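QA checklist item 7 of 12: single-chain prediction sanity check.
[x] sequence parsed
[x] length recorded as 106
[x] structure emitted
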Amino acid sequence: MRKIEREMIQAIINRKDWHKANTSVDITPMYAEIRLHNHLIAKYNLSNMDLIISHCGWTTNTTKSRLNSLINFISPKGGVFQKNFEWFLTKFNGETVEFMDGFYTV
């Protein structure tokens, strides 16, 4: 995990707004909203620990890395991976789905 991703996770744990380079965490009463280049890539429910993610049309290694850091923060069972230039999401229950543009509950 990259240093910026550790700091992003720490901001969520501390429930504090945080911004560094291209990544930010905004804390609302219910969610931690994670943005990459001002695109909302994830919402983490602070009360029930649900994670909702999106690549916002940007299937880059950086987006994938940020999403995987968030997923691994909650559980090591899930993750985003790429095969033949297509993205896939393995959810916490073990189900693997094609990761199309849109929001997914992990």
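[x] summary fact logged: Strands lie at 18-20, 23-27, 31-36, 39-45, 51-53, 79-83, 86-90, 96-98, 104-105.
[ ] second reviewer sign-off
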